[in-house]
Amino acid sequence: MKINKIKKSRLETVDFENLPFGSIFSDHMLICEFKNGKWNEPEIKPYGPLKLSPGTQALHYGQSIFEGMKAFKSKKDNVLLFRPDKNFERINNSAKRLSIPQIPKDVFIDGLKALVRIDSDWVSKRDGYSLYIRPFVFGSSECIKANSSNDFTFVIITSPTMNYYSDPIDILIEQKFTRAMKGGVGYTKASGNYAASFYPTSLAEERGYTQLLWTDGINHENIEESGTMNIWFRIEDKLVTPKLTDSILPGVTRNSILTLASEMNLKVEERTISITEIINSFKNKTLLEAFGSGTAVVLSEIRSISYKEEKYYLPNQEDSYCDKIKTKLVSIQRGDIEDTNNWTVSV
Questions:
Q1: pTM score, two decimals?
Q2: Which top CATH class is 169-333?
Q3: pLDDT digits (tens, 9 = 90+) for 108-153
Q4: Fewest C-beta atoms under 10 Å: which of 30, 141, 277, 313?
Q5: 224: closest CA among 184, 256, 168, 260?
Q6: Fold held by 2-162
Q7: What is the pLDDT of residue 228?
């Protein structure tokens, strides 16, 4: 692996008390090119612009995927990655679906560790802080024919960050637009999945909502996920989340919550959840709380769910499942308690 370090760090110019999510970038990035049927030697170099031709295929056909992960700094100054093996697995599942070559483990995992190790000073150990990590790959051939690219570029960039949502959120159940269809790419982190959601999300934001709650693409009857999160409902004493399909992203945080909830002796169900069930559960007062989960948002409390012209405010819970699970998850991520599942990896 080639390593070309920056001459002077930009760290001292960053105001860590004011970190807009995803807008501040660390000193270095990793780049690896796929050409002539193989991945070349990766290089860590100073963060900066990429050189792209106007004919770069990803700009025309959207052959691009990404991941989202985090690094944390423990009280003992150890830098910890959280479940990088799951992100490695998922990016290659996405790659397969979008006709992108499989990324070798040494390029992804070893490159990731080396990059974060070099920029470890960018990982703050203060509560609520982490280093957000964005691996992505795109078709980089110079060709505008509508077929798969022959060349690809894999990049990892990192960004110091605070919480994604600082307050409980208000969501609107979407009834017109569709995030993903059966047989499509909804289970992948394809860039186009997110681009297609921006317009309907902006319409919801204009009405005062934080995010949309997406429903199935056929009848708009069953709940799938939110724009930046998998979704969870506490109905009576059960924690319920939609079962995975090829139109729902298999979140790493979602998977972790399933394990932690079981360890905490909470009842969990993965199943089909209809809009009707959620509205009826609210009306009969068995819907006790709801929250979203994801790498960026961690666990975020949902304050209200709106459907058509009705807004349903969820009750405050002193015995919140969201708070309990989040506390345990973050404590593991930061190395504050024993990691019995071997999820954290020191760089």
A1: 0.96
A2: alpha beta
A3: 999 999 999 999 999 999 999 999 999 999 999 999 999 999 999 9
A4: 313
A5: 184
A6: D-amino Acid Aminotransferase; Chain A, domain 1 (3.30.470)
A7: 82
